[in-house]
Batch of 2 targets.
Target 1
Amino acid sequence: MSDAVKICAIVPVYRHENTSRNVVKSLASLSIPVILVDDGNTPEGHHVLFEIAKEFANVELVTHKCNLGKGAAMRSGMDAAVAAGFTHALQVDADGQHDMDSIPFFVNEAKEHPEELICGYPKYDESVPKAREQGRKITNFWVAIETVSLKIPDAMCGFRLYPLATSWPVMKRLCNKRMGFDIEMIVKLSWAGVRMRFFPVKVHYPKDGFSNFRMFHDNVAISITHTMLCIGMVFRLPLILGRKLRRCL
Ligand SMILES: Nc1nc2c(ncn2[C@@H]2O[C@H](COP(=O)(O)OP(=O)(O)OP(=O)(O)O)[C@@H](O)[C@H]2O)c(=O)[nH]1
Ligand SMILES: [Mg+2]
């Protein structure tokens, strides 16, 4: 097990300031430093996040003046994590949908396998909106084609522990600043040859919960992302197949 692993959490926040406190509280109770990214929230929202950063130790608040998107928020968060000398960053959504009890297991996996991406895949309960579940299945089908592999059971889960040495160079070159970010990131990490481990994470959609996901806009953006990634795959096919062959030998 590696002791050189230094883990922080990155929590991108847009219109989820009210659920952020419990997320930060759970992370603080595990002594995990937090980078909270205010992605252009209202002045009231910013004030809530500012107070959270004051209340808990080891919370850094990174602020975007206007809303730039989840991908841009994760990029700013990773930039801050690298600058602060962390080796790994746990991405957690601010809406409190992810089961925080999974964190110690993910942290342990990162310590055991510091070069690998430790990735959640969602175990939904009955609260999941059916349209979101279907959308994920379509995305996962395309991701199998884009990576020429069946090894990625879910490409949209926002609960991941990134090894920064390999993830930051990929992140800096991403095109997607908004919701296609999780998909583009995992496909490009796969193209870069980063190994991945997947574990279930319970996901619950509370009745009064709020989603930023815009059914039409975000699905169109995700379709454009898949088109780009399919074209990218065609150009990389010899490289991808060559790597697969070497791993088999
Ligand atoms: N959608 C969205 N999320 C953002 C943005 N900036 C930061 N975030 C954060 O990114 C995370 C994911 O956003 P959600 O609205 O929960 O989207 P989602 O989890 O893909 O969708 P659901 O499954 O419906 O919850 C949350 O922590 C948001 O607060 C943004 O511009 N758009
Ligand atoms: Mg969510």
Target 2
Amino acid sequence: MPLFLAGIGASAGGLEAVRALLSHLPLTRKLAYVVAQHQAADFNAQKLVDLVQPNCPLRVEVAQSGRTLLPDHVYWLPAGQDGRVDGKVLLLAPGSGVSKPSVDSLLQSLATNFGSRALGVILSGAGGDGVLGCRAIQAAGGLTMAQSPETARFPGMPTAAIQAGVVDRILDAEKMGNLLLQRLTDREAPPGMATLLELVQRATGVDFRGYKEETLQRRLQRRLNGLKLPGLEAYFELVRRRPEELSQLQQDFLVSLSGFFRDPECFAALSGELKAWLLHHRGPVRVWVPACATGEEVYSLAMLLVEMLGAEQASQRCSLEACDLNSVALETARRGIYSAEAVSKLEPTRLQRHFVSTGNGYRVSELLRSMCRFQQQDVLTAPIPERLDLISCRNLLIYLQSGLQGELLRRFRKSLRPGGLLFLAPSETTGTVGATLFTPVDKQHRLYRSRGGLSA
Ligand SMILES: C[S@@+](CC[C@H](N)C(=O)[O-])C[C@H]1O[C@@H](n2cnc3c(N)ncnc32)[C@H](O)[C@@H]1O
């Protein structure tokens, strides 16, 4: 049975809320929990476990590194340690941030490893830890919830997540157990969803019917919350009065989150493979990046190529075509201007080589911009460029049902030259259909080669 995993983030005033949440949890045989509550470095987490266990129907224990997560268990991260999951194994490492354990790193690893089975919970605390983690969980199709700030001793953490727009549901800690249970059992589309998707397609031309319903439902719920509407009936009523609302919903269905060298170890694996290939390949280098969002992935690939080939060769030989449905995200991609936060994880030498400061941000160099072309296109229907050397399609397949994933992988295979590379994100694989089309080059880092020869 697939395991669901909830990451619970809390800080000051969090114990009370964690206790309220844990004492109302049902046994599910499907769901495990990891608690990241900020604690002073010398604190003994066992004391918290002892306080909570008597009222909690699940087994609560201090987390140990290397343990496989079991359903109906609550793992409490010890003081000074950050926790992350790798598959179903919980790993601990000395915390590096200001607040330890870091809620963001825990939730980000849940998003990567559990995708739509990841749940993020933000309880009482001060500061903004948890915002990035909830954003990652939402982007991976999981569910996020925050304690209603008025019931939190310290409302800062839930408020920061709510204001950042990364929370699907806001409720009291003791009511969260029920919602978690619902999440495990009620994964059917509510009546009316099919009609709504048809209306969206008629209004915008975009067909979301092959997308994962649970993700669409959550995006719809967000829109309903934003409009303060009680349900789909009221939404249909609104659409009758304001048909242009459907275009807004279409944009809201798309999660355009990206980053430079997202999953650096995967980019390192890709870089090694490209370098080896470029040693003997002298012709043009053709790259396609579908679902490029705000462009960081495309520019990261262009940086790698410039670093490998030098500016002159790269500009003459490399072309990177990219597309997305989201016109707002594409506008950012085309301008190529990013905030200081967006570039903060780049190596300083890269920042210096490939960016120009604009005063309040950084613009990617003219060279990189000249190599990359962005178009507004639907990946599912637009023609794909041919004889590609690399398709980098990251964090799109996770939104699609398996039928559509298979269809897209078949088209990718056709557009890649024999032996061309396919680069996916850590929570995606080529699946059973893809196994007949692609051979893994580096399974762990989601790098595959199109079957049918190695010719360049
Ligand atoms: C989470 S972002 C991925 C961004 C980037 N690839 C990365 O991994 O950093 C997913 C993107 O897929 C885009 N998308 C979803 N369906 C699409 C479609 N049918 N055609 C083009 N883009 C699509 C969304 O607009 C969104 O920008």
